[in-house]
Amino acid sequence: MVDLSSFKSINFVAGKNTMTISKTGVAISQATVVQLGKPEFVEVMISYDEKRIAIRVTNIQNPNKVRFLNKNKKTPTVRWNNATLKGEISNLMKWDISNNIYKIEGKYYPQDSLMMFDLNKAQVSQ
User: Fold this and answer.
1) What is the pLDDT of residue 72?
2) Is the pLDDT of residue 118 over 90?
C-alpha cells in the first residue's frame, strides 16, 4: 500500500485568480473563490509599503472577518461594493477607478490559505 499521508489534493480551477477594481466595486474571480475553498469568511489585509492585498480564509470568530461567499449562491462569485475598500486602494495607487478598470492576478499560498495580489502589477483597461 502506498503511503499518501503527506499528499494533498489539488483543485483544478478554470480561469485565473484575479481581483478587479472599478467604480462598481471589487470583484473576486470564481477561480479565486474556488482556490480558497469557497470560504464563508475571509480577512482582507493590505500592505501600504509593498502595495499588496492579501485575502486569507478565516472563521466567524475572527473580529476582522469579512463575509466572502454566500453558501446559498449557485455561482461562486464575490463582489464588494465597499466605499472604504475602493477608496483605500485607489488612494494608495493613485488610480482613477471612475474611468478605468484595474485587474490584478493573484498568487495562491495553500499553506497559509491565502491569495496575494500585487497592486503594482495591475493591468489597466477602460
Assistant:
1) 83
2) yes
What are the helix and strand counts (H, E) for the chain? 2, 9
Q: What is the mean pLDDT of the chain?
A: 93
SS3 (DSSP) at 93? helix
Q: Which residue type, as a one-letter code, is found at position 63? A: P
Beta-bridged to residue 55, according to DSSP, are: 44, 115
Task: Label the pairing between strands 25-28 and 78-80.
Answer: antiparallel
Rounded alpha-carbon distances, angstroms, from residue 63 to 57, 75, 83, 85: 13, 27, 20, 17
Q: Which residues of 24-49 are buried (b: 16+ CB within 10 A; e: fewer)?
A: ebbbbbbbbbbbbebbebbbbebeee
Closest of 10, 2, 99, 114 to residue 53, by C-alpha: 114
The reported pTM is: 0.88
